[in-house]
């Protein structure tokens, strides 16, 4: 198998898995409990939390553990909307967001919130002038991802944060799920940050929401107190420990891995450029981990099936939006329905080997020739 879908999920690092097993064995008590075992578990969560805050340089944030970035995005968006509904009901986002953001916004829209989508420029980045035009005194939230999962475009988050900061009633939420552990990130002036360790060799079924201390969310899961007011239920002690270690391991090698992935992406683009019907949908602002492309005239599903038959794993749109409608993100950035229909995503990491890429190109060549011949 050639796995080129690391933006969807990554294998768990063995050190992370070891720690996960260890914590489950030695600190299995409920961290909400008041006996010794509970206190030990609570202490482990506290240590993990401190480590995460230090690694991400966000000492004033509260760390809320969830079941994934999907839940973290729901909590951030609905939590702000419901808690600050008397202040305003206007929210700004983009059409490049993950389904858990766009779905939460759609739900809020159905109950009377006003949602505006800021324009995206041809290079895939947010139009800051348009954001300045849209934002107003009753805007309570701007939610924009750091890097989108389909095209991999990295947004100008510090510039967006500066615009939002001029509006005291407005909070800034960043879904950084495709950025954390992959590229250097800057979290100044951001009130809410989502990420998910299974994107950086941590556990699946685990997510994190960083929340600035001054912000209050309406919890979305009710019943019982917990280590966090915002998330009822028995805390996932081993998950918290494993997340902190996964983050630590990635951050220690961030620069080196980024360089490795850049070299692989450059090589791949050079090879693919030799095919006249290949168009790259990821722009120059994309992170090297994600390469979105179209083979013009060939539906994405047909290309994916041909690759999949030969044991190559790539994805269409993102793992959470696999219906057969054309990609909204690709349509927005390229303006072409044909490219949107034929777009698919290769995603790389430092584990991707040169021989895997060479083998991929051989298979790609075969599929390209058979699917494009008249
Ligand atoms: N946000 C982005 C940008 C993603 O890419 C993903 C997963 O693909 C998610 C959120 C959802 O993550 P999770 O699987 O942890 O719910």
Automatic annotation (TrEMBL):
Residue span, Aminotransferase class V domain: 2-360
Keywords: Pyridoxal phosphate
Record keyword Cell cycle present: no
A Pfam family annotated for this UniProt entry: Aminotran_5
Cofactor(s) demanded: pyridoxal 5'-phosphate
Secretion signal, residue range per the UniProt entry: none
Protein name: Cysteine desulfurase
Naturally occurring in which organism (per UniProt): Acetobacterium wieringae
């Amino acid at each position: 198998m050639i796995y080129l879908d690391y933006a969807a999920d990554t294998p768990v690092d063995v050190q992370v898995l070891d720690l996960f097993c260890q914590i489950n064995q030695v600190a299995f008590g409920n961290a909400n409990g008041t006996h010794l075992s509970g206190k030990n578990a609570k202490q482990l969560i506290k240590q993990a939390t401190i480590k995460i805050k230090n690694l991400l340089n966000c000492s004033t944030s509260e760390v809320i553990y969830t079941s994934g970035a999907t839940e973290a995005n729901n909590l951030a968006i609905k939590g702000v909307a419901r808690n600050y509904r008397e202040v305003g009901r206007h929210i700004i986002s983009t059409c490049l967001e993950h389904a858990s953001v766009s779905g939460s916004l759609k739900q809020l829209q159905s109950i009377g919130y006003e949602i505006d989508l800021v324009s995206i420029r041809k290079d895939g980045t947010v139009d800051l002038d348009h954001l300045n035009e849209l934002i107003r005194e009753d805007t309570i939230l701007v939610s924009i991802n750091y890097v989108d999962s389909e095209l991999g475009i990295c947004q100008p988050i510090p510039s967006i944060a500066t615009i939002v900061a001029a509006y005291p009633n407005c909070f800034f939420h960043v879904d950084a799920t495709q950025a954390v552990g992959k590229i250097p990130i800057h979290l100044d002036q951001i009130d809410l940050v989502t990420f998910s360790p299974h994107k950086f060799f941590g556990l699946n079924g685990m997510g994190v929401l960083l929340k600035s201390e001054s912000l209050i969310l309406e919890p979305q899961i009710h019943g019982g107190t917990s280590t966090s007011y915002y998330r009822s239920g028995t805390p996932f002690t081993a998950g918290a420990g494993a997340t902190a270690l996964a983050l630590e391991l990635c951050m220690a090698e961030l620069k080196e891995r980024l360089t490795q992935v850049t070299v692989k992406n450059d090589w791949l683009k050079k090879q693919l450029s030799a095919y006249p019907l290949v168009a790259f949908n990821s722009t120059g602002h994309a992170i090297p981990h994600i390469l979105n492309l179209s083979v013009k005239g060939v539906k994405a599903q047909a290309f994916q099936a041909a690759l999949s038959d030969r044991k190559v794993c790539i994805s269409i749109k993102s793992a959470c939006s696999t219906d057969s409608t054309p990609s909204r993100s690709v349509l927005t950035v390229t303006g072409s329905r044909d490219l949107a229909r034929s777009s698919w995503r290769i995603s790389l990491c430092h584990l991707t080997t040169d021989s895997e890429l060479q083998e991929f190109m051989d298979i790609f060549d075969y599929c390209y020739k058979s699917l494009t011949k008249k």
